[in-house]
């Protein structure tokens, strides 16, 4: 039987073409994608296209758009076997991470892809990314979806969405998951590493929880910065602090006083690493003990994108019981290497 895939086009380079009069890129009518890419008709699946009314640059994608996508998938969940989201590359990891938390007990593939060059460009990476993403979005075995999580497919690699980061604005191979293995690779055959795929451990039915709070601040520390500037800002509920290495920060009395004052105000502090690979390990170095003293939360090996969207989803979410630190420390959908 032919699987049915819903293609949601949000915007981004993949849906652009060059205006030869001005030399600038402009969005084309994505309803005509089958004319632009007739090879899509050769794939053994039925594709329905749902473009955003106004295609968005990925820098304009945010919580409101995440909700729109999540709820549209929820509305159409029973009518399609898989979902493909075409998205600009700059914030794709944020959207993939957010969707992984919002789409509960997912049993079908949700694949995001995009491109570094427009689909009409002679050297474009858009065609391969889109066509192979369709294969992955329609991949079933024994009447069960092989992929049951939110993923990103880019340059021959299938990656867990909430583990990805965009590390190159130049190369076609733009995404990595430094702290998690590749889920699959496309070559002559489509390979899947089934041992690395996520499976929900509950028997609950799929649902959408589109709760998102924006009362979250992300702050990267640097040598010589005045941390006390944080006290001059309006009160924040969650501060995600990106620190050195495996969890160190300049160890001064003023640092501890500032962070303790933030905690006394009720601010939750989540600590993630500035390193691309590896993660937080409180106690490994003495300059990380400050975080244990003030009751900060370890982000372990989470990406910044995943930690930010996870905090936004969990903060003040009535569907989660327990305090924020307990909930955040759980491995909800494969975003962190701890149970």
From TrEMBL:
Domain of life: Bacteria
Active site residues according to the UniProt entry: 13, 89
A Pfam family matched in the record: Asparaginase_C
All residue ranges annotated as the L-asparaginase N-terminal domain in the record: 4-194
PROSITE patterns: ASN_GLN_ASE_1, ASN_GLN_ASE_2, ASN_GLN_ASE_3
Domain Asparaginase/glutaminase C-terminal: 219-321
Family: Belongs to the asparaginase 1 family.
Designated name of the protein: Asparaginase
